[in-house]
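Below is one such protein, fold included:
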Amino acid sequence: RRPRPPSPRMCAEPPPRPGSRAGASDRRQSVAWRVATDRARSRARRGPEEAAADARPEHVLCMPLEGVLIDAEGEVSRVAFLTALRLWPDAVAPCAAVPARRSGLRRHQAGVTEEDMRRVMEQVMQPSAYERQVGAAAPAWLRLKLRALHPAVSRPYEAVLLARLCAEEATTAARALTVGETLAAWEEGDLAGTLLARYGATRAGLARAFAETRDAWRAADLDGWVAAHAPLPPAA
């Protein structure tokens, strides 16, 4: 048996009688009384499930994982390198034999901490099961350079472009661009558009290839893929 709706007197004072001289305050009170009464009757007609839904919090806090709870740069850079290697093996593969001094990475690179260097070296020395399966992993200097360039990346396809650019320049250019020079060209010009035209690629195509590599890693080595994400200190 459903409960009877509460009496209108419990919601608000009743409106003035017809014919009485009601001012603006009385009219507002009359409207509030009708609204409160309608809401009380509506709640009384609802079942237990709907009543429980009304009791749930109305405000939900949403926040991104990347940069707030976790540092996903390691996963993004490794997936980007594997994607670039799959798409352009002749241009990317030779970078594995390039010494760090030819990479354009400075000895004390801004944006790269000692903790970053320690973590990257561990990952290079102990690649994930998926990287061992495909027989490829980015060299340490490339990982550190992509780490320093990561603030410029807002879309996955951009990480793929930067991975090929850094890998190819280290093997073919007389002097590879530094991180600062690359960031300046990326932010002040249209370096991403230039690279897309140079490589004959599209944003959608690179994004799809990046997603395929990520899905393949997760399917073959979920633990290794999860370990590529580092919790940020507040979240840890």
